[in-house]
Amino acid sequence: MGSTKSMKGIMNVVQPLGIGYLAAVLEEDGYDVNVEDCQCLGTSHTELAGILAKKSPDIVGISATTPTFGNSIHAASIVKKQLPDAIVVIGGAQVCALPEETMSYDCFDVGVWGEGELTMLELAAHVGSHGLTHLDRVKGIVFRHNGSVVQTERRPLIRDLDELPFPARHLLPSLSKYHPAPTSYRRLPNATIMTSRGCAGARCAFCDRSGMGFGVRFRSVESVFEEIEELIEIHGARDIKFFDDTFTLNPKRVFQICQEFERRGIDIPWCCLARTNTVSREMLKAMKDAGCWQVLYGLESMDENVLRNLKKLTTVEQNVQAVEWSHEVGISVRANFIVGTPFDTWETMEKSLKEAIKLNMDFAHFNKFTPYPGCELYKMLTAQGYHYDPAKWDSQHDMKGTIMYTPPGIIEGEYRRWLVEAHRRYYLRAGYILKQLSKIRSPEDLRRLWTGFRAVMDL
Hints:
Layout: H1 5-9, H2 17-28, H3 38-41, H4 45-55, E1 59-63, H5 69-82, E2 87-91, H6 93-97, H7 99-102, E3 110-112, H8 117-130, E4 141-145, E5 148-151, E6 190-193, E7 196-198, E8 216-218, H9 221-233, E9 239-242, H10 251-263, E10 270-274, H11 281-289, E11 292-300, H12 304-310, H13 316-329, E12 332-339, H14 346-359, E13 363-368, H15 376-383, H16 412-427, H17 430-438, H18 443-457
Parallel strand pairs: 1-2, 2-3, 6-9, 9-10, 10-11, 11-12, 12-13
Antiparallel strand pairs: 3-4, 4-5, 7-8
């Protein structure tokens, strides 16, 4: 991601739950599984080659988003050079969004599109018996055959998530090795947990849901708390982040989870992601009482027309109300904005920044708009003649990374400067700094604040 020391210090490096789930189901079925979290451990390409030579796996799985796809191609090429007979499987958002383009690279043998656990189980069994022949019998994959890319039938989503084992965290580096973004935790070690899959209630034009769709499936509250207790008692977690797309989607369930924290006597700080039209003051108060210290809202814009075109299905009024309710009950607010969409102008971007400053949230990030493959806006822009090479993408969170799109009438250099200045105008206000200083309660609070300040100054 970021090329500077300060940007690296605020990267959100957390345990890869998707890989953890895949490893868990394979291990449960009797397979010998190893996981190398290269991002967490800083594994170099030379070190990766050495690990491959030592372990000599039959199947190598690589997870890739679009910004990490270039690195995935490099890693897969190393596998092919080191272990010519190994089968390389790619999964993740990249292959779900662009299956044919992804499989045009011959370093990948098979792509998994959609939910991966059951597909990987079937694929591993099939490869053990048939190698790479008759792959059309396996649901949920994409592969090359006779010069063409073949995509098999979509595998139905797992209805009962309680049937899945917990992520194989024992195969990952310990929680203490990870460093989440300093704005997203109170104490270390921090652990992430998913209590549901999918997102419902909106069809955001900037979001790709080709892997999981727009339905939502919930784990039972009992299963969720069994995993929370395992995280605390076995893995030493002192802080939890619920990583659901929208944790607050089902109000009744949110209240049940809050009550369960009290019933089990679990006193641990936690945070979550929410959409502003799914919360109420009563819900936020219950969350606060149960240990929630922060909510991340995707506000996206403070302009009604932009929100409408983004199909967020929220309003500026709901954005303001949710933030104010959160402040009233004592929950910190972290907000994400998307600026530079096809519907933005200098005026709408300035409006979002000025309204964010008025709301005076603890954290606000003004993300450059990125047309991620698979989303509605990506399809719209490519139809207009824009072209994107997924192998050449880089970090879309680093202000120094590539700008993938600028709105009509806005020059890229001026847009990049505005992104930097927006963060400085937000965070380097005297009132904001004093507010954050008044909240320092521990050396860890001071360290997080200093890390964030250095990152802003280095933009």
